[in-house]
Write a structure and sequence with these properties.
The chain is of the alpha/beta class and 124 residues long. It has one domain: STAS domain (Transcription Regulator spoIIAA, 2-Layer Sandwich), CATH 3.30.750.24. 44% of the residues lie in helices and 28% in strands. It contains 4 helices and 5 strands. Strands 1-2-3-4-5 form a 5-stranded mixed sheet, with helices on both faces. A hairpin with a 3-residue loop joins strand 1 and strand 2. Helix 2 crosses helix 3. It starts with a strand and ends with a helix.
């Protein structure tokens, strides 16, 4: 799978790493896998630094809409997206904007992992 656990610091936080080309189906599979069970409310840092995202704007809007619906059903934990390339950063910001506009709090987009980690810690 192009999205994998890079660090699991006990039950406190899940750090994921994406590598290679990631399409919307692979992202949905990762969401289903890593937001299941007790990890539903766990803070997640998803590092997209080594990934190429191949989503359309419609696909990212639909993914954000689906996550908002899930969050209304039962709250989801915070999500920090780390994107060092302009393309991944733009797609991530689009996801955050759709999430914010539809009432899903605690989605952050960052250029570096340290800032993302600090943001997640500030929410604890």
């Amino acid at each position: 799978m192009p999205i994998f656990v890079s660090d699991y610091s006990g039950a406190k936080r899940l750090r994921l790493k994406a590598a290679g080309s990631i399409d919307i189906d692979e992202m949905r599979a990762a969401v289903d896998q890593f937001r299941a069970g007790e990890r539903r409310v766990m803070p997640i840092l998803l590092d997209l630094s080594d990934a190429t995202l191949t989503f359309s704007s419609d696909e990212i809007a639909k993914l954000a809409e689906d996550r908002v619906t899930e969050n209304k059903r039962s709250p989801l934990g915070p999500l920090a997206l780390v994107a060092t390339t302009d393309e991944a950063f733009g797609i991530s910001r689009m996801f955050k904007a759709y999430s914010d506009a539809n009432g899903r709090p605690h989605v952050g987009v960052f250029r570096d992992a340290l800032t993302a980690e600090r943001w997640l810690q500030s929410l604890e």
